[in-house]
Structure to design on (438 residues):
């Protein structure tokens, strides 16, 4: 096939744009960016996860999952006939470096979107940059909610999908009511534990003690001594990264078993269990939307592909699964709007995106940019996996604002009043066909 001359291509492109303008069925910002999406041989996507430092133990798996998805998408022909090109940055588990790298990806590398971050501290560090420069961030990690940003799409679990079923299950099914809370000293654990305490009051649980360790600290002998003498009958842990491995190991070395005082966590995954050894995790519990042990054809295929790419001993986990399907959602969004324009992706491409993920059917909520996910509770077994002991009957609606702490507060990016405040370049209301009235 002969290559098109530039003049011929632009002439054809101009005719296509004229046709679109005449049909008046597409927002103008789509039109002004079709040429942009057609430029170059690739579509750049930022990958912003720590490959070194204290959080690398889990963030590396997110990085790997996103690269696997990109490889699969490219093998199927790419997006808009172009390959996705990952632009990789390592923020080294340091909040300030996340902000620096995010700005570089948006302004210097000019990526179409960034798949990135893990801790809430890192997310909050980069959000002002995405909002200032109107970038698109896909954030794949569970988090404490209480946030809405038009520039961020949250594909990880929120409290309505993790805690709301987990806390009453611990109290009523395990019969454990006396909670000892231990977490890392930053935003997510403190806000999560505030939600846990509200649920304890609601369901008849009791707070015995609450403490926080500096992020990165891995010496817990004093804390475990306190736990042993506190009178608690369950530990709720939102320690992160290398802390999880250290805490579980030292907990077992002290002589406390899951039968004595189980550890229940919304964070501990197969990744940390692989690092600590299954003997240190057996019998303890985690609440997540996904486990590697999910019995579904889509998941079995996903696990096999992941192991084929990263080794037979590699394990999958909830947050990397969210990173994996988020990458597909981004690709589908670009295909849908046929543009790499951020406003096109923010207001039309990503909201409502639905895929059959390894965990089951998932969807980005059109109103709040969070994701409908499933609820599951797993008990760690001797193989380093989780036996699923509870599952939600259907996918669970995401609630960005916890209703028992913020009654009446909501997030709705489809509300005309919100759209007006955001000063969209195309703030006209949609007509019944779903297009924009220009």
């Amino acid at each position: 096939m002969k290559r098109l001359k530039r003049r011929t291509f632009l002439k054809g492109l101009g005719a296509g744009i004229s046709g679109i303008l005449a049909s008046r069925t597409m927002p103008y910002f789509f039109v002004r960016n079709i040429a942009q999406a057609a430029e170059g041989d690739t579509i750049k996507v930022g990958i912003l996860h720590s490959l070194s430092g204290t959080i690398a133990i889990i963030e590396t798996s997110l990085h790997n999952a996103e690269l696997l998805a990109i490889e699969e998408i490219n093998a199927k022909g790419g997006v808009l006939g172009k390959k996705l090109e990952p632009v990789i940055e390592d923020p080294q588990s340091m909040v300030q470096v996340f902000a620096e790298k995010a700005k570089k990806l948006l302004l210097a590398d000019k990526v179409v979107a960034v798949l990135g971050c893990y801790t809430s501290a890192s997310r909050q560090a980069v959000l002002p940059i995405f909002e200032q420069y109107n970038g698109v961030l896909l954030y794949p990690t569970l988090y404490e909610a209480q946030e809405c940003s038009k520039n961020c799409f949250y594909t990880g679990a929120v409290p309505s999908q993790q805690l709301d079923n987990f806390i009453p299950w611990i109290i009523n099914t395990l019969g454990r009511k006396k909670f000892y809370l231990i977490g890392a000293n930053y935003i997510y654990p403190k806000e999560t534990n505030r939600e846990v305490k509200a649920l304890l009051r609601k369901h008849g649980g009791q707070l015995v003690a609450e403490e926080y360790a500096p992020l990165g600290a891995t010496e817990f002998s004093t804390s475990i001594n306190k736990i042993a003498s506190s009178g608690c009958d369950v530990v709720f842990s939102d320690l992160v990264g290398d802390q999880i491995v250290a805490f579980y190991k030292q907990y077992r070395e002290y002589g406390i078993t899951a039968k004595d005082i189980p550890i229940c966590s919304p964070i501990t995954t197969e990744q940390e269990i692989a690092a600590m050894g299954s003997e240190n995790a057996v019998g303890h519990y985690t609440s997540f939307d996904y486990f590697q042990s999910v019995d579904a054809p889509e998941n079995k295929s996903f696990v096999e592909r992941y192991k084929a790419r990263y080794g037979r001993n590699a394990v999958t986990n909830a947050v990397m699964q969210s990173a994996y399907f988020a990458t597909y959602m981004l690709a589908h969004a670009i295909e849908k709007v046929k543009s790499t324009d951020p406003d096109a992706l923010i207001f039309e491409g990503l909201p409502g995106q639905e895929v059959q993920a390894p965990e089951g059917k998932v969807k980005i909520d059109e109103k709040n940019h969070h994701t409908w996910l499933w609820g599951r509770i797993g008990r760690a077994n001797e193989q380093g996996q989780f036996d699923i002991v509870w599952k939600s009957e259907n996918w669970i609606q995401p609630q960005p604002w916890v209703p028992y702490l913020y009654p009446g507060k909501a997030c709705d990016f489809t509300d005309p009043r919100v759209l007006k405040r955001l000063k969209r370049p195309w703030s006209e209301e949609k007509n019944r066909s779903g297009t924009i009235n220009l």
Notes: Residues 160-282 form a domain with the Rossmann fold fold (CATH 3.40.50.2300). The longest strand covers residues 206-213. Confidence is low (pLDDT under 50) at residues 1-38, 423-438.
